[in-house]
Amino acid sequence: MADVPFDRLDGYIWYDGKLEPWAEVRPHVLSHGLHYASSVFEGERVYESETFKLTEHTERLHSSAQLLGMEIPYSVAQIDAACREVIAANDITDGYLRPVAWRGSEMMGVSAQKNTIHLAIAVWEWPDYYAPEARMKGLRLQLSKWKRPSPETIPCKAKAAGLYMICTLSKHQAEKDGYQDALMLDWRGRVAEATGANIFFVRDGVLHTPTPDCFLDGITRRTVIELAGRRGLEVVDRIIQPEEMSDFSECFMTGTAVEVTPISEIDTYRFTPGSITQMLMNDYSALVRPSQSGAAAAE
After folding, report:
1. Are residues 53 and 176 in the same domain?
2. End-to-end CA distance of the chain
3. 135-171 pLDDT per residue, tens
4. Which of 1, 131, 183, 229 counts the highest number of beta carbons within 10 A?
5. Are residues 79 and 198 in the same domain?
6. pLDDT at 30 over 80
7. If you ran DSSP here, which 8-state letter would residue 189 be given?
8. Does the active-site annotation cover 159?
């Protein structure tokens, strides 16, 4: 994709029930979602013109909105149809899909009981999140000073815009310091997640992943656990303390954007991208791009 600001891309955005020219979609500056973070969203990947696990993402969008006291005025089936419509209108084969819902501008203040709930869906071409050569070497992560909050303080099961503020702060600092991402601990000091992805470790052929009790149980995370099960690999969902990272041989993160991406280091901890990580990367790629996996098998 060319280096063009996102508000100047060509194409169409589905906005409150119909397709609108991309550059003309303008939520008001006094929208409640901008000032008070009353906004939820999804990040979805389009492979071969189809959205991977579309309905599962849409169901989570609805659930996130409900956790923020918002009722999206479109059903899951209607949103799924709108996603397909905007993909076709923009002629996207491989892309990134972003549905987002937010409170509008009828009331401005903490209370916004009468505000309209808006929904927009955009899609754009999406190359690999990390260059292939960097991905295979493994990413370098920094431990963030910011921690995932207690579920008593945030709606941690919602994919809500406001919850990503500390993710942005963490990633910006990591990039400033020469890393590619950051690992966040939770409020108790336990291993939690990267800024936009879940994390897995490997020891003696067994996968270990933090229990998502204060952060999202990602759709890609669940998919990789299923793929590991098909391979007969044991997956242990448990509390992981930071000092345990010295005992793991492999490490990788999972997410819609990063897919399955190896990690080579987290601060002073070192990992070697190995056979289990490579196998799950290949299995995930075959799952989301079935025509390519079929062609490879035929060869």
Report:
1. no
2. 31
3. 779 999 999 999 999 999 999 999 999 999 999 999 9
4. 183
5. no
6. yes
7. S
8. yes
Residues of the domain holding 93: 6-125
Report the candidate in 210, 216, 166 with the shortest Cα–Cα distance to residue 190.
210
Let me know whether 141 and 268 are in one domain: yes
Q: How many residues does the chain have?
A: 299
The single residue listed with the structure tokens 């990789």 is: 224
Quote the pTM value.
0.93
Annotated active-site residue in 114, 137, 157, 159:
159
pLDDT digits (tens, 9 = 90+) for 195-215: 999 999 999 999 999 999 999
- Provide the residue type at 77 as one letter: A
Provide Rg for the chain, Cα atoms: 20
Instruction: With respect to residue 280, please indicate whether it lies within any of the assigned structural domains.
Output: yes
pLDDT above 50 for 292: yes
CB 80 within 8 Å of CB 55: yes
DSSP β-bridge partners for residue 124: 96
Say what angle helices 54-67 and 219-230 make with each other, to 10 degrees. 140
Report residue 125: phi and psi, to 5°.
Answer: -60, 145
